[in-house]
Amino acid sequence: MTRRIVLALLALTVVLVAAAAVPLGLSITQREHLAFRDKTQAAARVVAASAEEYLSDRAPADAMNADLADAQKAGDCVVVSDTNGRLIAATPCQAAQVPEARELVARTLAGREPEPPESEGRLLAAEPVGTFRQPDGVVVLARSATPLDTRIAVTWTWIGLVALAGIAASALVSVGIARWVNRPLATLDTAARKLGEGRLDERAAVNSGPPEVHRLAATFNAMAARTENLVHGHQAVIADVSHQLRTPLAAIRLRLDLLATAPPETAPELLASAQDELARLSRLVDGLLAVARAEQTVPKPVPVRVDEVVADRVAAWEPVAQERGVRITNHCRAGHPASLGSGHLEQVLDNLLANALDAVPENGTVTIDSTPGTETLRVRVVDDGPGMTPEARAVAFHRFGNPRARGSGLGLAIVHRLVTTNGGAVTLEETPGGGLTVVLDLPLGHERRAP
């Protein structure tokens, strides 16, 4: 990944530098050529002005000779010709007498605008003495292009150095950016590999990099913590289930061993005891399956008439309550639906009523009432049984949390899971005067929910 980031940024930098440097260099080169040609023609015009005084005005040649001397000192070669092309004056060098110079003289004498050509590293400039239409002579000046070439070479060298410096700086910055991005990702990859190898306590400590990588690391750590909790929770569940199943299985095996050697008159009693243990084992397995189904439930809330469901479940449990001498009363108000998964409230009430009827002694009472709120509907199941200690209430919603439970110890775990999955809450309180009160805060249905 580092290599790809560096190569991509370098390629982008090279393209941008080339797009900026090449046009700049070409523009500077063209401007230098124009400036050099203009200066050459200006120098030729200076000599042409003094030559005009000599050829047209018949003035002394002192001014022309002085200009020729200055041109020689500047490194220029100058030739002054009359209207017939004869040489009038010249500097000692012969660079202005090449064939290109003679062509310039002929064009200038013919009254045509000459184009300054280059000849062997020199630029030639021709200026008429007098007017273009009737010139009295021609001045041809040849100037070496070496200084021009040197300036252009220096300019391109500086442009190249700046471009290389920019590319080098871009390479350094791209390497830093790539490492800045890649280092936390490598740390995260190492943590993920260790987590996959079974080290559930491994976490990704990312202290650098972009914010997106920080969020990814936080998400990974949350996922790792969730995975660790799930694995440890499943291990705890397996340990609890193994412990809970061991007791009835051992009791059944003991009864069967005794039944094999017991006299005939005790066989029915041993067989009945073994059947009781089988029934207990069956209830335990059914409870575990109910908890597993509750934990895997993804509810689709629908409006549920709580008063109707409570009345239905009270009627279903009334025969059991009468058999045990317990009275069930229903004080739920009508017209307040809750938003729950289909059938979940029935399961919750069945578990709570079963626990209450097991705990309440003869002549006891179990009361169900409801109180609507702005966002929730509070349903209470109140009994006057022996109640639970604060320590027992603190762990009552765990699987097998209450070791003194008469049943499987899974009823309240199922209730808690079903209620919280639907967005509600369940708490245990002490009933005034003795007993246990289960408080359900259920989300209201859509037609009663406050805006």
Short recap of the structure:
This protein is 57% helix and 16% strand.
The major beta sheet can be summarized as: 5 strands, antiparallel
Output the CATH homologous superfamily of the largest domain.
Answer: PAS domain
Question: What is the name of the CATH topology of the largest domain?
Answer: Beta-Lactamase
Mean pLDDT value: 81
CATH architecture heading of the largest domain: 2-Layer Sandwich
Fold and architecture overview:
This protein is of the alpha+beta class and 451 residues long. It folds into three domains: 2-150, PAS domain (Beta-Lactamase, 2-Layer Sandwich), CATH 3.30.450; 211-293, Signal transduction histidine kinase, dimerisation/phosphotransfer (DHp) domain (Helix Hairpins, Orthogonal Bundle); 299-443, Heat Shock Protein 90 (2-Layer Sandwich). It is 57% helix and 16% strand. The chain is built from ten helices and twelve strands. Helix 4 (146-196) runs parallel beside helix 5 (211-261), helix 6 runs parallel beside helix 10 and helix 7 (306-324) runs parallel beside helix 8 (344-359).
Key features of this structure:
451 residues, disordered C terminus, Helix Hairpins, Heat Shock Protein 90, 5-stranded antiparallel β-sheet, rod-shaped, 5-stranded mixed β-sheet, alpha+beta, 16% strand, Beta-Lactamase, 3 domains
Q: What is the fold's blueprint, element by element?
A:
Blueprint: H1 2-55, H2 62-73, E1 77-82, E2 87-90, H3 99-109, E3 118-119, E4 122-130, E5 135-144, H4 146-196, H5 211-261, H6 267-295, E6 302-305, H7 306-324, E7 327-331, E8 337-340, H8 344-359, E9 365-372, E10 376-383, H9 390-394, H10 411-421, E11 425-430, E12 436-443
Parallel strand pairs: 7-9
Antiparallel strand pairs: 1-2, 1-5, 3-4, 4-5, 6-8, 9-10, 10-12, 11-12
Helix pairs in contact: 1-2, 1-4, 4-5, 5-6, 6-10, 7-8, 8-10
